[in-house]
Design brief:
Blueprint (H helix, E strand, L loop, with lengths): L2 H7 L2 E5 L4 H12 L3 E6 L13 E5 L5 H8 L4 E4 L11 H21 L4 E5 L28 H14 L6 E7 L1 E3 L10 H4 L6 E4 L3 E6 H10 L9 E4 L2 E4 H12 L4 E4 L2 H16 L8 H6 L3 E2 L4 H6 L7 H14 L5
Parallel strand pairs: 1-2, 1-4, 2-3, 4-5, 5-6, 6-10, 7-9, 8-12, 9-13
Antiparallel strand pairs: 9-11
Helix pairs in contact: 2-7, 3-4, 4-5, 8-12
């Protein structure tokens, strides 16, 4: 499908979580390609794109059935981005209610409304990670320590639930890795940049992860509307880096120097045990043993399937770092 064809079809797409890092980039990408877009969000003040004649914002919660029913009217597609992404809630039922049950409900409402395709934004950690030499792909089952993550588990359960319903309506799963770039208003993943930016000493976890420019991930998601197979999942991944390698690229990109100290695994695990102890005392925190174990592994993936089927292309991670830093600067974040 060429650009002229896309401009001509005027399909209407509902994007949930439209003011998230990925959601905003998806909306921008859709508008650039000539789609009509509805964006669903809870806070109208936290949306940074300029008004556009093909774009309508709807204030509401994606867990509210009446709001979703109205938002779906007349739509051709839905891209479901919204989710509970917290890493510190010690109760799986909270994640299950929002990420699994509400996603299931949204899908059935979309079927009732006669939509063509449901694109679900999951997470790369629904698949097993690998090494840099043999990175994880869509054929590998999820691995520890992510099996202990309530967030990853809920996305896995939602993903499996949707795939069982693929006979009712086309469903395509997209599984982004760690995204960086503009419109990170919380900030969310951009915290990794702010925590090390211009620091004289940077303490690095011993592991690593896969990084992707959020605009590249957004393009992969948008391409999934018209490409990819019903019932298939696609890893949207970029470059595999250790944390030390990433922090060095951050410093080189921003033009400063730091001293890097890699923390021993036992230090992080000790912190994790203390974090679990605090949770047992009723004090929620991010420093759980599962989260600390995640920082100790090489969480690496390949994007070969998405490159082939969705036309995924990725730019250098330095560009993502530059775009994130520029956006933070323009919006007074991390001063």
């Amino acid at each position: 499908m060429n650009y002229a064809d896309i401009i001509g079809h005027h399909s209407l797409v509902l994007v949930t979580g439209a003011n998230s890092l990925l959601g905003t980039n998806i909306v921008e990408c859709l508008l650039e390609q000539g789609y009509q877009v509805r964006g669903l969000l809870r806070d109208m003040r936290r949306f940074y794109l300029s008004p556009h004649p093909n774009f309508t914002l709807i204030k509401g919660d994606f867990t509210d059935q009446e709001t979703i029913t109205q938002a779906l009217q007349g739509c051709d597609y839905v891209i479901h981005v919204a989710a509970c992404t917290d890493q510190d809630i010690p109760d799986y039922s909270h994640y299950y209610r929002i990420n699994v049950e509400t996603t299931h409900q949204l899908f059935l409402l979309a079927v009732r409304a006669g939509l063509k395709r449901f694109v679900y934004v999951s997470t790369a950690n629904c698949f097993g990670f690998g090494s840099k030499e043999e990175p994880g792909d869509e054929t590998r089952p999820t691995r520890s320590p992510f099996t202990g993550s309530y967030y990853a588990r809920s996305k896995q359960d939602a993903q499996e639930s949707l795939l069982k319903l693929k006979e009712l309506m086309d469903v395509v799963i997209v599984n982004p890795t760690f995204m960086l770039g503009a419109y990170d208003s919380k900030p969310s993943s951009g915290q990794i940049i702010l925590m090390a930016y211009r620091k004289k000493i940077v303490f690095c976890p011993p592991g690593g992860k896969n990084f992707i420019h959020v605009a590249d991930a957004a393009m992969g998601v948008v391409n999934a509307l018209t490409s990819g197979q019903n019932g298939e999942a696609y890893l949207l991944s970029g470059v595999n880096l250790t944390y030390k390698e990433f922090f060095k690229k951050l410093a080189e990109t921003a033009g400063y120097k730091s001293l890097y100290i890699t923390l021993p695994r036992f230090v992080l695990l000790a912190i994790g045990h203390f974090g679990n102890f605090l949770q047992k005392l009723g004090i929620p925190n991010r420093f759980t043993l599962t989260n600390m174990k995640i920082l100790c592994i090489g969480n690496y993936y390949t994007n070969s399937k998405a490159a082939c089927s969705l036309g995924l292309q990725t730019r250098p991670i330095e560009t993502a770092i530059q775009d994130a830093l520029q956006w933070f600067k323009e919006n007074g974040i991390g001063k």
